[in-house]
Amino acid sequence: MSEAAHPRFMRPMKAPAENPGRVLELGPERPLVLDSGKRLSPLTIAYMTYGSLNEARSNAVLVCHALSGDQFVASTHPVTGKPGWWDYAVGPGKPINTDRFFVICANVVGGCMGTTGPAEIDPQTGEPFGLSFPLVTIRDMVRAQALLLDTLGIEQLLSVLGGSMGGMQVLQWAASYPERVYSAMPIATAARHSAQNIAFHEVGRQAIMADPDWKSGDYALAGLHPSKGLAVARMAAHITYLSETALQRKFGRELHDRNALSFGFDADFQIESYLRHQGMTFVDRFDANSYLYMTRAMDYFDLAGDYGGILAEAFRGTKTRFCLVSFTSDWLFPTSENKRIAHALNAAGANVSFVEIASDRGHDAFLLEEPELFDTVRGFLGAAASAKGIK
Amino acid sequence: MNRPVTIKAPPALRPDLAAIAEMIPEGTRVLDIGCGDGSLLEYLVRAKGVDGRGLELSQQNVNQCVARGLSVVQGDADTDLSEYPSGIFDVVILSQTIQATRRPRHVLHELLRIGRHTIVSFPNFGHWRIRLSLVIAGRMPITSALGHAWHETPNIHLCTISDFLSLVHEVGGRIERALALIGNARTRKMHPAAWGPNIFAEGAIFLLTKA
To answer: Which residue of B50, B68, B71, B72 is the best one to mutate when testing the A interface, meaning the one whose CB has the most A CBs within 10 A?
Structure first.
């Protein structure tokens, strides 16, 4: 991957969201106290809302985004110009029906689309935080979202939904604020990050840190961005989001824009060209340090660890209605991990459904148009809304 | 909190399922094991306001149930009942399923543990038509209640009403109510110890509790 072939790799990431949607500024009187013991203040939370909050304030649905996602769940992305990452699922008449529900999606703390994160300016120094930004956890992300709901005057969410890292937040929401979560739908996720998943994240982080432009995290001061390292991290991660079957079906050994092998290291194969494209486009919209922080937050996630090693204890006495979803070909967050959560919820006597959807599209399936997933979302949300008395 | 706001007209239920539904008090917490496509569960939730859960082996059925708004988990009665706490449900239902489990004794024991009441229904292998098929024709019986050929049946642990009664006794259960299924359309109260039902009932429904 030469610089000449990919000049975009040299370009620093575009300035964090010029249009972050709605923004909540929390002053020194409302600091975010982090798991690390540090305090984050002032704090900015960038978020989007869709639909309208009913009079009883009872129809709010929180969507939690995944590692590389953001608050633009159902609206055109301000940097890429592409449709929202869950545009299939959220909107008028869609499974998460904005004619009926008030949908909120906030950029997580530590993210890079307008919420306070390592790319933002530290008010104490006037320079970007970089690695001086405190480590955040999944629980910190959820705490920040709770502050946002307090401000919006939403006492209880009708539902919290999310896949992957978003699903971890859903689980944490249900454990930390059971009385604020009427129903919860963790999709393609786990209650703990596995050794294999930590390993993949470490590869990504090392790729970023090995980029000379990373400058120990202070690249912004030098007007640089470790785009090559971040692109490699994204390429490696992207493989884990797909299944072998899907890769083989989509690309096989097909050649890219040529009839014969080049006997060099150009992107001969379509899969190479595809991965390079994934890496290249990612660096336009994502901050390298933020990627380090997000992956670390996932690595640290072990819900049972906070409850004496017994996952069921995290949900003891819960009244939340749960629906877990996994995909057959997802080897990053396999059915077994999701089933483990279902077992713990059963042991806690919780109201739980568990759906495994047959798909050969791997972990990515949760972001794609999967009719069975959408039937499940529609049925589950509809039943929760009826049970809560929402029209 | 799980009381539905709109109660739809109850869908037509199979007579044996209707008899089971009739045994379940309103607003109770119910687990339907082997809930299939969720017909009984849906009726109980909508018409009787129960806090209903299902456990079902077939993933396809589970997905259908959840899309209908029911709370159902994919799982296996033989292995997954042990994860439920004791006495967590008011009523546990095992309808037309015990004969298909690998460990009926273990399953029945678990049912009595996790439910304050247990409802079990099953086809009666002591029915006269089945006896005749074996004795006269010398062939494994195929009836409306047991519609599979011997080589493809999921029913690996068939029993008679008398057999079931001894199992209940062995695992420390007590019979609260007993119904005989006559033909496909009627149920009739029965005295479990009487010899008649074991010959004339095509199936049975028992309401049990721990002795």
So the answer is: B71
Global pTM reads 0.89
Which domains, and CATH codes, for chain B? 15-210 (3.40.50.150)
Q: Do A352 and B71 touch (CB under 8 A)?
A: yes
Chain-chain contact of B84 with A357 (C-beta, under 8 angstroms): no
Cis geometry, peptide bond prior to residue A42 (ω within 30 degrees of 0): yes
Q: Which residue of A has its CA nearest to B49?
A: A387
What's the half-sphere exposure (Cβ side, CA atoms, 13 Å) at A351? 25
Q: Residue A26's pLDDT is what?
A: 95
For residue B171, the distance in angstroms to the closest alpha carbon of chain A comes to 23
CB A360 within 8 A of CB B49: no
Residue A266: the pLDDT is 92
Residue A303 lies in a domain: no
CA B67 to chain centre: 23
What's the rounded Cα separation, in Å, for the pair B109 and B171?
6
Note whether A45 and A114 are same-domain residues. yes
| Boundary (domain end) residue, out of A233, A265, A297 | A297
Q: What's residue B193's pLDDT?
A: 80
Distance CA A186, CA A164 (A): 8
Residue A261 and residue A185 in one domain: no
Distance from C-alpha of A104 to C-alpha of A173, rounded to nearest angstrom:
14
Query: 3-class SS at A184?
Result: strand
pLDDT (0 to 100) of residue A3: 36
Contact A346 B84 (CB under 8 A): yes
Contacts of A349 in chain B (CB under 8 A): 84-85, 88
Q: What is the structure's pLDDT at B11?
A: 58
Same domain, yes or no: A243 and A275:
yes
Q: What is the pLDDT of residue A20?
A: 66
- The answer, for A31 touching chain B at a CB cutoff of 8 Å, is no
B17–chain A nearest CA distance, Å:
22
Which residues of A have a catalytic role annotated?
164, 330, 363
CATH number at residue A261: 1.10.1740.110
Same-domain status, A139 and A254: no
CB atoms A346 and B73 under 8 Å:
yes
- pLDDT of A210 higher than 60: yes
Q: What is the mean pLDDT of residues A326-332?
A: 97
Q: Decide if B71 and A353 are in contact by the 8 Å CB cutoff.
A: yes
Instruction: Please list every residue in chain A whose beta carbon sits closer than 8 Å to the beta carbon of residue B62.
Output: 353-356
Domain of A241 in residue numbering reads as: 7-13+197-297
Rounded to whole angstroms, how far apart are CA atoms A46 and A66? 15
A298 pLDDT more than 60: yes
Q: Say if A302 falls within a structural domain.
A: no
Q: Do B80 and A356 touch (CB under 8 A)?
A: no
Instruction: For chain B, 211 residues long, give each residue's pLDDT as a single digit of tens.
Output: 444 444 444 557 888 899 999 999 999 999 999 999 999 999 999 999 999 999 999 988 998 899 889 999 998 999 999 889 899 999 999 999 999 999 999 999 999 999 999 999 999 999 999 999 999 999 999 888 888 999 999 999 999 999 999 999 999 999 999 999 987 778 889 987 888 999 999 999 999 999 8
CB contacts, 8 Å: A388 with chain B: 1
Number of domains in chain A: 2
Best CA proximity match to B6, nearest among B34, B32, B45: B45
Same domain for A157 and A290, yes or no, is no
DSSP 8-class letter at B133: I
